[in-house]
Amino acid sequence: MSSDLVVVGAGIVGASVAYHAARAGAVVTLVEAGQPGAGVTADSFAWIGSSGVRTGPAAALREAATDEYHRLEAELPGLPVNWSGSLSWGTTDAAPEAGPGQEIVDAATAAKLEPALRQPPEWAVWAPGDGAIDPVGVIERLVAGAREHGARVCPDSGVTAIRRDAAGRVVGVETATGPLSGGTVVLAAGAATAALGAPLGVRIPVDPSPATLFRFSAPADLVRTVVNNRDFDLRQVAPDRLVAAADSPERTLAAVRSTFHGAGDVELLSSRVGVRPMPADGEPIVGPVAGVPGLYVAVLHAAVTLAPAVGRLVARELLDGAPEPLLAGCRLDRF
Q: Any keyword NAD (predicted)?
């Protein structure tokens, strides 16, 4: 792999790769079809946490998620992260269980954590180390950080093809505004990643996965943590705004009003469907592509949670030339 990189996609994964690679000394061009952060990341609920039992190839990445965000906060002062903790209850019929970094709390404690609850649950799972981000704000800081380290950023330049030389090695990309050269191309284009790999004979098993995000008006301090229950994932993003990840706007609005005191005037402001990338087995696909020298893939579903760790490890893998053990279970060749 070359340290002259073209990163395709300025969502949170591509922005993280570009920032970490530029900071490590790579020559980086970050290219995006629209504006950085204007894609699916903008419609993410953006809950981050390392708590709970983690299994699978990306378990270690998930366990490091909050530490990686704390590291990124130190590197990029002003990173918009709110370490509110999360409170979950009633998501299953089984008795609550606490995983690493979690504790079971009673109704009195739940009421202290969320004073507006009409009927605090008898038991809930409290994860004090959890938080949430402003995803667009984080992307803006990552892109600004990449620029500060010499990266070139090309918005409104949709990639139409991967360029290769006569020997089959990647030499850059074709875009709507002209060609861009680079010895390594990192595909971090979310749900569009599969379509970019297909003309090269590369099958990247990623499908679009729609997710709905609702925005509501709200009184100040109605919700203080990240709330997770059967009806919604809910958090306050501004003194007068809530966001919720759920299925139905009508049912979600009714559930918010019935769950919290003072929520009678909460109103739906908007509803947007984001098309998230979903690998076939739900786990990240990260690593070089066998048979196409110079091509590297970084596509994952839990992008907001894992982007700082993945960006740092991808940059180190590309620049140092040594496989990263934490990415060993995430390779494309597992399919």
A: no
Q: Strand 226-228 vs strand 86-88: parallel, antiparallel, or unpaired?
A: parallel
Give every strand in the sheet of 241-245, ordered side by side.
103-106, 123-127, 86-88, 226-228, 233-238, 241-245, 206-217, 268-279
Domain count, the chain: 2
In CATH, what number is assigned to the domain containing residue 327?
3.50.50.60
Contacts of 165 (CB under 8 A, 6+ apart): 171
Residue 93: its pLDDT value, please?
75
pLDDT at 198: 96
92 lies in the same domain as 123: yes
**Per-residue confidence (pLDDT) for residue 147, from 0 to 100:** 98
What pLDDT shows up at residue 17?
A: 98
* CB burial readout 240-265, b (16+ within 10 A) else e: eebbbbbeeeeebbebbbebbeebee
Give me 245's structure tokens: 């990840």
186, 296 Cβ separation under 8 angstroms: yes
pTM, two decimal places: 0.95
pLDDT of residue 52: 66
pLDDT single digits (tens) 60-104: 999 999 999 999 999 999 999 999 999 999 887 777 788 889 999
Task: Name the residue among 133, 59, 49 with its Cα closest to residue 87.
Answer: 49
Residues of the chain with pLDDT under 50: none
Note whether residue 81 is domain-resident: no
Q: Which helix (H) or strand (E) holds 6?
A: strand 4-8
Look at the block and give the residue holding tokens 């649950």. Answer: 121
Asked whether 16 and 143 are in contact (CB, 8 A), the reply is: no
Range of the domain at 190: 4-76+134-205+280-334
Buried-state track 267-278, b at ≥16 Cβ within 10 A, e below 16: eeeeeeebbbbb
Containing 105, the helix (H) or strand (E) segment is: strand 103-106
